[in-house]
Amino acid sequence: MTDVTCAIIRNDEGLVLAVRRGPGMSDAGKWEFTGGKTRPGEDHEDCIIREIDEELGINIIITGRLDPVEHDYGNRQIRLIPFVCETLSTVPCLTEHDSYLWLAPGELAGLDMTPPDIVVAEQYSMHNHFSDPGKPDVYETGAAAEAGEEMARLLSGINSVTEITMIAHSAAGDPGLVSQLVALSSSHEKRVGFMASWALSKVADKNLELLFPYLPALIDALPGVANESVQRSFMRVIMKSEISLVPESHHAKLVEYCLGIMRTENTPVAPKAYGMEILSSLCGIYPDLVNEVTVAVQMAVANSSPGMKAAARKVIARLQGMEHGAWSMEQGGM
Questions:
Q1: Do 322 and 207 share a structural domain?
Q2: Does the model's pTM come out above 0.70?
């Protein structure tokens, strides 16, 4: 039995990367989660990081693993070991495969995948299945009720990236719809919160100004957010916004939250990257934070991927520039 690793790679929107096997590969035309065989003496974790670098040219961070899947091809038997990974990269450099797709977990079932990858996809989708769109959902009173049960049901039934993009496109020109999405992001129904916050993240790419009035509400909500997808979307919106637009009354809360992310082990790569950028912006207002933030960033990426370390170096260089600038001003004033 040969051990083979594969990676379920998620981007900062929670979409999963699938790749199609090229003409020179066995099972050409089939879709899969990329990976490869472990070399003698090589750990499974080292194997998947190496394989992803060789086949896709992107940096990943391992955040978990699923149950191994054994499969008999007739002439060989494999044990497929799936890792759940995160990346900030969006465009892989294909060396063996001939196409790639970023898909929502529910869309994986529509691909013509290799037999063991089908099992992995089902396993991953089961772990990331929020609710059955065919069944009526029960929504909490309060924020979701005020936003409207109709919109909540619409979000609950979404099963494709195209649908969420269409909602975001509509919201980018409709402040009232943006208000509904903000309220529904705090829904106790996990799927509704996920879809609403995902739409907000896409609105930020189309018409960021619409979200400026809601920055305090997003910051207030962050400490109580249990849904990783909602956390990621809220932080992305804050990171993309001008920090000067955040009321001073919320600065301390934002600093505390982002430092907490930096100091917490196993924080997903996207919130960690957004937290670094947010803290860097806040240091422009509060230079006294530079040393503390620099140390927190250095510790947070100590065991991260080369890509994350490179991003951290840019942030640290920016912080050091701020510190030097503050020192120069003090010298000039003496």
A1: yes
A2: no
Residue 113 main-chain phi, psi, to 5 deg: -100, 165
3-state SS of the chain: helix, strand, coil percent to 5? 55, 15, 30
Tokens (6 digits) for 249: 């009354």
Mean pLDDT of the chain: 84
The number of distinct structural domains making up the chain is: 2
Distance (Å, rounded) from C-alpha 157 to C-alpha 155? 5
pLDDT at 325: 52
Give the burial string for 8-21 (b: 16+ CB within 10 Å, else e): bbbbbbbbbbbbbb
Print the domain residue range for 122.
Answer: 2-127
Q: Please name which of 93, 3, 103, 94 lies closest in space to residue 48, comparing C-alpha atoms.
A: 3
Last residue of a domain, one of 63, 98, 127: 127
What is 175-232 written as a DSSP string? Answer: HHHHHHHHHHTT-SSHHHHHHHHHHHHHHHHHHGGGGGGGHHHHHHHGGG---HHHHH
Which of 201, 203, 183 shows the shortest CA–CA distance to 192?
183
CATH number of the domain to which 68 belongs = 3.90.79.10
